[in-house]
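Supplementary Methods S3. Input chains for the assembly prediction are listed below.
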Amino acid sequence: MRPIKIRVENVSKVFGRDPATALAKIRAGLDKTRLKEETDHVLGLHDISLDIRAGETFVIMGLSGSGKSTLIRHFNRLIEPTAGRILFDGDDILAHDAARLQALRRRKVAMVFQRFALLPHKTVAENVAYGLTLDGVPKAEALRRAADQIALVGLGGFETSYPAQLSGGMQQRVGLARALATDAEVLLMDEAFSALDPLIRHDMQVQLKELQGRLGKTIVFITHDLDEALMLGDHIAILKDGMLRQVGTGAEILARPADDYVARFVRDVNRGRILLCGAFADAGVMADVEAPVIGAEATLETAFAAFAGGAQVVAVRNGDGRMAGSLTAQRVMQALARV
Amino acid sequence: MTSGFPEIWDTRSFGRALDAAFSSLVAQWGETLETVFMPVLRAITGLERGLQFLPWWVVVALFCAATWGAGRRVVPVLVVALLLVLLGLLGVWNEAMATIALMLAATVLSVLIGVPLGLAMARSDRMRGGMLPILDIMQTMPIFVYLIPFVMLFGPGKIPALLATIVFAIPPVIRLTDLGIRQVDPEILEAARSFGASPRQQLWTVQVPLAMPTIMAGINQTTMMALSMVVIASMIGAGGLGYQVLQGIQRLEVSRGLIAGLGIVLLAIIFDRIAQSYGRRVQAGLHREGK
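Predicted structure tokens for the full assembly:
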């Protein structure tokens, strides 16, 4: 298994004048609503523990107010936790002094923002080079390295444009290039695509996946959109009211929602596009030799074509070439119908 | 004479004590202060003599260059040139140069003191809470009141005129620097922090550039207020156009007052044009769309 890049241990965050006392009350059993009424403190996150592995895309999803944007800001200490530890490559970043924290932000973690947050008075190239110039890289070299990233996100030719001259999608590509330019190992993406039109958004998702495949970054991606989470995430964490409800792969969460909230959340998802044939194959029954064969890693949707072609049974084959079992149309329908 | 409000404490002796305290302050520090401000006085008189000594067309050319540098547009340059020539035609050229010298000195010093104060105010709510009432007092106190202590300290002349002008003109640049910095989009500032910008880098790469249009509006207001105060300060020996107005009053010469007054209006328009065209360029730099 890949090494752990970021480990979050029992992190809690309370907003207000005296967070420590308020947190003690929470631990003694006071709930979030009463805490707000009685002490005017807001519980942002409660006892979150997570492991994010190197090279994966880890999606944190939840509705607004769930604490997801608060959580992601703990990973580069834009927000300090009230309690808990955050380990980056095994180092507790809460113990970093100002200089080490600055070095971490300049070289190891980069962030992409929902509303782009570009510098309006600087050109595309200067924006992309921003992190490098903060780190003292000479301007000429910073701009040269920025040009590579601009080309990578498909904005070649726009180096001397200003952000306001670009469309939303193009601006977010600049935001992405700016984050890639410092060569950080971890990208924090805070609802990075939420402000974009659906089509552009899909393009950006595809482009991010492709970049991820090439660059192997660790990506922490925040979203409120389940389809986006399922498309991008190797693992997904579901957050509600500052508490973690479930962590797992998309297929795991769809197949075995941890509680009613998660179940309701995933109800309207196109399950055929997420659930994998391997998970539903009947190992007890082997299909005959003429039956069409599909991989265990294929989604149920890919099996539809075979059934549409007239097959009664489909054979499911594991990655190692051995047969995992068979799948009937009835089994597929049961999986889709959550029986 | 009886007054409606009972006399609970002795205001007259309090006033006398205050006056005595100030007089001893003057006796003790007057000369030191005068020496300290000597270089400033030399700078102002130097600037004034320089402007008066240069051929008029060189001064016009200098102003045109400044206007071009500020706005990179032709029309304001032509307007400024025309207004300066009009000023010469009115026959108040030398007086106008004296007024410009004092006003420029007051504006530059106001900006040098006011911008850092505004930045400090934007950084600390406590500082802001302390500064706001002081600024309110500075702006509402009748301006003649400032003249008294400064004249006592320095005697009539350009230095008390300069200091009274600064006190009167500095509040807008302080206020609008504070406002401009506070209005910077917090998300952009957060982005700068997330890339590891030090507080100093945040200030110079994000806060000051994004606050620039607002800061410029403050500088423009400060310039205009300095101009109006320089005129009043002529009562304590600042010379220049204001002195012509004062003479007009004393000699009951309508023409003298009117001409000097027109000169002041022309100066106001000139500096407003320069400041505004710079402000417009800065603003455009922040919201460039299809150049």
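Chain B touches chain A at residues 185, 187-188, 190-198, 201, 205-206, 209-210, 285-291 (CB under 8 Å). Residues 124 and 178 of chain B are 10 Å apart (CA to CA).
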